[in-house]
Structure formats: C-alpha cells, structure tokens
Specification:
The protein is of the alpha/beta class. It has helices spanning 42-49, 74-80, 100-113, 127-137, 153-163, 188-205, 226-230, 277-281, 329-342, 368-380, 406-415, 445-453, 455-461; strands spanning 4-9, 15-16, 32-37, 89-94, 118-122, 145-148, 167-171, 208-214, 233-238, 245-253, 261-267, 270-273, 292-299, 302-314, 322-325, 350-356, 388-390, 393-394, 400-401, 420-424, 438-442. The strands form five sheets. The protein has a nine-stranded mixed sheet, with helices on both faces. The longest helix has 18 residues, at 188-205.
C-alpha cells in the first residue's frame, strides 16, 4: 500500500496536496501541517458496516419518554437541561486548570453512588495519579466506578463493550488516537476520526459519553470546528484559574436550552455549587461609591444580580481609551455616544473603563441603563443610591425600552434586600409584585439620572 503525503489545516480540517501559507477555507495563516495519508484498511470498513441500519418510516418509530440521568449536581443538571440524556455526547471545554477534570471526577463519584456503572478513561494521567486526585475530592468506595489509563481508541471501545457502563468520561480527546491512521494524536484527522467513532458508539449502544477538550489561546477548542458539530452538547467553563468562582455555560444543546448557566466555587475539596450567585456577586460591593450600580441579568430562567463598575478619568494621550470587561465593547461605544448627545456629557477626552464584577459576561440588553448611569456617576463623581436596582434597555434617542421578565428580576432583588427598582415605564403596567419594593418608572435616560441623583430630596418632598 502506497502512502501519500497531504497537508491539513489544523483549524478547520481543509486538506491540500501541497503546503499553503493561508487556508482558503478558514483564512488562517501558517495552519497547514504535513500528514501521511493512506486509504482506510478493510478492518475499518467492516467495523463501519456493523452500525448500518435500515431506513424506517417516522410514523412507525416507537418513542419512549425516558427520564434523564441526574448527575447529582443541580447546577450541572440545570445547564444540561435536566440531566444526561441516554446516548448523548457532551463536549466539555475550558482553559487549563479551570476544573474540567475535577468536575468530571465528581460526576463519576455521584453517578457511581447512585448505582450507575461509570468508566473514566484517563489518557493524560496514570491510574495512581487519578486515584491521588480522587482522594482529594473525597474517598469513593463504590464498586461501579472503573478507571483506566488508555489512549488507543480501539482498546477503549473494547473496554466499553465489555463493561457496558452508563456513562463514559474521555479525558481528553487530544490524546486519543486511532491506530489505523498514520497521523499523530491531537491532529485534525485523529480528533475528527476519534470523535466520530465515539459518537457512533454512543448512538448505537445508548451510552452517554463526556469528552473533555483543551482550549487554544484564541478560546476555541483545540482541533477542527467539526468536533463541536458532531457532539450533542458543548459546555464551556469560564472564569480565571486564579479566581475561586467558575461559570459553566452551554454553547450548544440539542436536548435543552443554551441560556442556562451553572455557578461553582473552587476550593481544596473540589467544585461546590453556588445556590445563590447574586449574593456572591454583590458580597464585596462598596457602599456610597461613585460608578457602582446594581442591575439584574437573565441567564435562561435564572435572574442574577450583578454590579456594574465604571471608572472615568482624564485621558493622558491624544486618543481616549474605552475598555470593557464582561460587557460588549461595541455596545459600550454606542452608549457613550448616547450619553454625550442626550445628557451633554463631555466624554470625548475621558478614558472610560467598565467592569462587570464577578467575572461574568453579559449580553442582556437590560443592563444598558445601569451601564449609562454607572458611567455618569463616575464622570460626575456622585454616588447612586445603594439600595436600588436599575433595569432597562437604552435606545439611540435616549429612551428607556421595556425588558423581558421584569417581575422575575425584581423578585430576586427583593430577596436580597433592595428597596427600590428603576425600570422602564412600559414594564410597570402589567407587573404584579407582592412585596414592599418601590417601583420607579422612567421613560428617558435624563429622567432616570435626575431621579437617582436627587433621590433623597425627592423622597422628602414627596415627589416619589
């Protein structure tokens, strides 16, 4: 058999008979790597033939509503849509040290204690090293948890068919290789082939498979983008490795919503669930400080109270800087232009820095009003009333537009002791809040600022 040489793009998987400086498919530079190519052997064709199924009529398919398999961690179950679906393939990505292997071992312990057989395939650590890490997370005496150190895909498949577990953990996909392929482990060809074989195994046997994937410097999972298209669910761990809090977010989920998030706290004994993230995000909020405003964002069905912080200082250069952490940079530039035009703030020579405390990334438009008031407060060095939560989307004319689920957000604010809620006037019409929190409707950006600026005087004068 003659072996040919091809060049494969390590970003998208595009193949070329010669080396190219720039990939014509994904436009990345210097991404081609030389690989050996040979036709697939007969063994691979025979193995593929075993999974062939005959087409059937959709009306004749019998569907059984099966309960999801609970992981024992409510935050993870929330992100998955209620639990693990039988036969699903879940890709878990994140930065090094963020807690991917830690949460995988914790899930293994919880599932095995519930009587489910689990196979943990560790390709990067020996069995003894995995045991050492498992002891730190808590001793496990279950006879349903199996651990193996293996990187050969064919041997892993044999172990799965022999043990017949309910859940398999692959740690990680970049070190698993198909022996019938000549390319090295972690290459585009190997990652695509191994992910496809594992997905095929999960669909035909009904076994749920977790695949751990490394993340590149650009924030994408190492390997081709086709890896995310093959699997059923893609989960990302967010958060600084030096911070104690981690956010688990679903980027893709065929069996649930992609709007849910899970919040965890990392300590010496592993990841712990955070049942009240709003209290954590606001625990270190400064009192009577300019530039600090509290708002409520909606992540799926969960409202979260977060603190918006702004700092406005005189620019020492010819070009004023705009920086945002946890907030869209382009949206920040738009809101600054609205403040300059509608409120008359001279921000063209000011450096503006906006930060969402807690390390969370916000895409909810309901945070617009809080960002505008935070920048205005920092620019004028006047503090906004501390026991008020601010909600609303800001339009280009300076109007405050209505938001979704305003009642749910206000109820969360009332639980944490907030006394006032500034929200769009249209949201006050049909809202029903059985609490003593005061609703302050506003229709314009200037009106909202005037109310919060002169709040004590207006309360004494009976205006509010």
């Amino acid at each position: 058999m003659r072996t040919k040489t091809i060049f494969t793009c390590q970003k998208c998987g595009y193949q070329s008979p010669k080396w190219l400086g720039r990939c014509p498919d994904c436009n990345n530079w210097n991404s081609f790597v030389e690989e050996d190519f040979s036709p697939p052997p007969a063994k691979t064709k025979e193995r593929t033939a075993l999974y062939k199924e005959k087409p059937v009529l959709l009306r004749d398919v019998e569907f059984k509503e099966e309960l999801r398999l609970s992981t024992g961690m409510r935050e993870l179950d929330r992100v998955l849509g209620g639990g693990i679906v039988k036969g699903s393939v879940i890709l878990l990505g994140g930065d090094p040290g963020v807690g991917k292997s830690t949460i995988s071992l914790q899930v293994c312990n919880q599932l095995s204690r519930s009587g489910n057989t689990v196979l943990y395939v560790s390709g990067e650590e020996s069995v003894q090293q995995t045991k050492l890490r498992a002891n730190r997370l808590g001793p496990s005496s279950s006879d349903k948890l199996y651990i193996v150190n293996q990187t050969d895909l064919s041997i892993i498949v044999d172990h799965v068919r022999e043990i017949k577990p309910a859940v398999v953990i692959i740690d990680s996909i970049q070190v698993i290789f198909e022996p019938n392929m000549s390319s090295s482990a972690g290459s585009v060809s190997q990652v695509r082939e191994c992910a496809g074989a594992l997905t095929q195994l999960a669909k035909t046997s009904g076994i749920s498979i977790f695949i751990i994937g490394h993340v590149t410097k650009e924030g994408a999972i190492a390997g081709p983008r086709v890896l995310e298209h093959i699997v059923d669910t893609v989960l990302y761990f967010e958060g600084d490795r030096f911070s104690t809090y981690r956010i688990l977010r679903a980027v893709k989920n065929r069996f649930g919503s992609t709007n849910e998030i899970g919040v965890f706290e990392m300590d010496s004994s592993g990841l712990k669930e955070v049942n009240n993230p709003s209290e954590i995000f606001l625990s270190e909020k400064p009192k009577e400080a300019s530039g600090s405003v509290v708002t409520s964002v909606l992540e799926g069905s969960r409202p979260l109270l977060v603190e918006v912080q702004s700092l406005v200082t005189r620019s020492g250069f010819g070009y004023a800087r705009r920086r945002a952490q946890g907030f869209d940079y382009n949206r920040l530039g738009l809101l600054v232009a609205v403040l300059e035009k509608r409120l008359g703030l001279a921000l063209e020579t000011e450096d503006i820095f906006v930060n969402i405390a807690g390390g969370i990334n916000i895409e909810d438009p309901a945070v617009d009003l809080a960002v505008c008031l935070s920048i205005s407060s920092a620019f004028r060095d006047q503090a906004v009333i501390s026991d008020a939560v601010v909600l609303g989307e800001v339009g280009l004319a300076g109007e405050i537009r209505s938001i979704a689920q305003a009642g749910l957000r206000i109820k969360e604010a009332h639980k944490l002791g907030f006394k006032h809620a500034v929200l769009p006037k249209n949201n006050c019409k049909g809202i029903d809040i059985n609490s003593d929190i005061e609703l302050i409707p506003v229709s314009g950006l200037k009106e909202a600022w005037d109310i919060l600026l002169d709040f004590p005087a207006r309360k004494q004068g009976g205006i509010l």
